[in-house]
């Protein structure tokens, strides 16, 4: 594509900046309303998600195991009905084992998700001039 001739008030078309209104200098931090460019890392408060995928995995697994816990607690015969198996010959031992394991997995996942959620929310860093303690 040929370039247009630059006049006294015109730059070549390949040299033009997009007209976004306000221009910032390279050493000035980006405006909070602008998205960072690919070469700028996201600051902790501008991440797209405040938590890692591990949090969502623990939350989903905890939710599924919680549903299994409730299902087995309220309808213990679902194993025999849906699978056509009777692993404990009608004594109910397997059902209580499923209830105990599902409760343990639910509690472990909830605790892990809580730790993950708290880990991703550090206290804000102090800036020069900030005071430590109560009101001045």
Could you please describe the fold and organization of this structure?
By secondary structure, the protein is mainly alpha-helical. The chain has a domain at 53-119. Helices cover 40% and strands 0% of the residues. It is built from three helices and no strands. The protein has helices at residues 53-74, 78-83, 93-119. Helix 1 runs antiparallel to helix 3 (93-119). The longest helix has 27 residues, at 93-119. The radius of gyration is 29 Å and the shape is rod-shaped. It starts with 52 loop residues before the first helix and ends in a 17-residue tail after the last helix.
TL;DR of this structure?
The chain is mostly helical and 136 residues long. Helix content is 40%, strand content 0%.
Which properties best describe this structure?
single chain; mainly alpha
Structural class, judged by helices and strands?
Answer: mainly alpha
| Shape annotation | rod-shaped
Separation, N- and C-terminal Cα atoms? 63 Å
The DSSP helix count reads: 3
Topology:
Elements: H1 53-74, H2 78-83, H3 93-119
